UniProtKB/TrEMBL annotation, chain A:
Transmembrane segments: none
Top-rank taxon: Bacteria
Pfam family, one: DRTGG
Name the record gives this protein: DRTGG domain-containing protein
DRTGG domain segment(s): 5-105
Amino acid sequence: MNIKNLIKFIDGDLLTKSADLTREIKGGCGADLMSDVLASIQPNAVLLTGLCNPQVVRTAQMSDVAAIIFVRGKKPPQETIDLANEEGIPLITSPFGMFELSGRLYLAGLPSLEQPISE
Amino acid sequence: MNNRDTNFDQSPSRFKGKIITDEMAGKITRVEELAYILKISDVMSSSLKTLSPDHSMQDVLVTMRENRISGVPIVDNDSHALLGMVSTEDLIKCLANQDIDANLTKYMSTKLVTVNSFDYLTEALKLFARTGLGRLPVLDENGALAGILTKGDVTYGLLRALEHDYIEEEVRRYRASHLFEDIESDRSSLILRYTIEHYDFTHGGSASSKIKRALLRLGANAQLARRVGIGIYEAEMNLIIHTTHGGTIHVEIEPHQISVYAWDEGPGIEDVNLAMKAGYSTATEEIRELGFGAGMGLPNIARCADEMDLQSELGKGTHLTMKFFLKGEDVVGEGYTGKGKKETENDA
């Protein structure tokens, strides 16, 4: 699934411009704890989160996230959007909750790209 | 905003019938930008077939046929001022009247929409969109005819500029990735230093972001850049969250290893072993709301780095060292040793 199809699939709104929407998504990861994302996510995932601050974008950039979806119709502040535009990471907001989004995307064939965090 | 005006659907023959792919659409912002950088004189055709007003419509017909053009600018012999244009449409009118020997001034259009050679391309794009015309005569500072601009010229000029951008970026990458090759010493290294302010969440992660980009420029593969980037990001956030006065990040890049040092001057960690335990955290509720302080930072660093050392003294400060060892194909700054393979990995 590429980002363009993803947006349609989740009734999403794209909040950023200048991003490559043909990028292929390999799977998903849902978390509000950025350290968990950094520790467990594999490259080219879509990140589902309720956290809206700019650190989400930084985290995504460090861990090669393909796109960020804000769940429950959340809209991040302008500074987050600005940073995402700068770094070329698409931000999408979807009216669905984290639980429903994960389920829908999983059923659509996107695997989990969360590795267990072992000590 | 201007991409609507560029009106790709009506683009020149070489793209006619071809669907604009998403990949091309992705370039639109840069194209918009270029429309404000390129001057009309940069893209117009300046080798022109023109006629002077003393010629006949027969001459127009011959000029059009021989040069396979659909419009001839009429210019004054002395001043080179543009007097009018004779288009195919004008020629058809003339032929319908069986008046081919008439002087061309009888049929030429004198109400012309023109552009200035010193204007930006965006002006021409707006005119193309507004008037629906296929070609615009271009005038220089003195009002003399300088050239002709067609939609084809615009597309060709933009593509050429994009190609130029692309080559420049490639050259920049190539230079950086061969950095260590051209400098001789017993041991060369590149040192990057960053000052991290306490509680500066706005810029939190910008140092790691810059370091990751630098590594990719130097030819590191995506996986290595990611590993180093995540490690440094955690260290950077630690300096922002847990120190009294922020700290310094110091990255030493050598062809075969990357060493990262994060220093601060306090408050220091009371029990290093406890701090290293996953889930242990001293972060406040406020920090947790930002998505940090889950007690995963240091364990995360340990996972990312090949070697990690944490020295801390209460009241004095903390020294964190991370080392990343580069295996054969990871090597940075010495060219693409593992050629084809590396480049595809970078793209991934």
